[in-house]
Write a sequence for this structure.
């Protein structure tokens, strides 16, 4: 049972344009969401997060939007740069539960930004 | 520099052999985790430990074992009971404050 889903395996955008990566979840106990970026043969690195008490969080070129009623979140990258080309993972957890820090990951979306 | 060190980076083993992957952190984090990455399946949790001398099974613990004798170390043993051990293994740690995990660079295990 895939509790966190990234339905787009890949996304290709032009440099300078907006990249939108999507993520859906099914577990209503999830209340904290994170995005990670991963280059080949390296570990993922934390990008941005959002708590369920918010619907938007912004950090420079990266903005995460959360729609709790739809159980959907998205990561916007504006403007996209070639160095953003990587695999992006959406992750979720129940921050208030005893398994705090135990993240459930989506399958990942490969972003390619063309110069 | 603070971080997580995984070794070896690449490992080849024959079928039926147990192998142990090392994970060491100097971030003074209480919690440590092992994830497995397979193509198209994202990261799946194998085991996690929130405190020394205690650990819990994750979603795919069968065929794996761990120990947590020191705060800094969380080795993972892939046993011969693991049916499909070839994968990319990632160790992570957290201070539990934000849910943010810090990952090592990973170990790629290939069983021949």
């Amino acid at each position: 049972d895939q509790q966190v889903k990234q339905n787009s395996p890949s996304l290709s955008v032009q440099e300078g344009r907006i990249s939108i990566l999507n993520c859906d979840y099914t577990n209503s106990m999830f209340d904290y969401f994170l995005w990670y970026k991963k280059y080949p043969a390296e570990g993922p690195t934390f990008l941005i997060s959002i708590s369920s008490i918010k619907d938007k969080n912004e950090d420079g070129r990266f903005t995460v939007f959360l729609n709790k009623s739809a159980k959907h979140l998205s990561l916007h990258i504006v403007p996209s740069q070639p160095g953003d080309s990587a695999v992006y993972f959406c992750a979720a957890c129940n921050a208030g539960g005893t398994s705090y820090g135990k993240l459930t990951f989506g399958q990942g979306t490969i972003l390619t930004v063309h110069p | 520099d603070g971080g997580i060190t995984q070794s070896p980076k690449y490992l080849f083993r024959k079928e039926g052999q147990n192998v142990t992957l090392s994970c060491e952190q100097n971030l003074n984090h209480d919690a440590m985790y092992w994830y497995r990455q397979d193509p198209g399946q994202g990261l799946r949790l194998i085991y996690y430990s929130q405190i020394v001398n205690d650990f819990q099974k994750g979603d795919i613990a069968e065929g794996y074992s761990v120990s947590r004798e020191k705060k800094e170390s969380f080795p993972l043993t892939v046993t011969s009971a693991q049916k499909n051990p070839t994968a990319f293994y990632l160790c992570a740690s957290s201070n539990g404050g934000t849910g943010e995990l810090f990952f090592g660079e990973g170990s790629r295990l290939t069983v021949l």
Remarks:
- The mean pLDDT of chain A is 93.
- The CA atoms of residues 41 and 69 of chain A lie 36 Å apart.
- Chain A has no helices and eleven strands.
- Chain A touches chain B at residues 4, 6, 9, 32, 34, 36, 41-46, 49, 89, 91, 93, 95, 99-108 (CB under 8 Å).
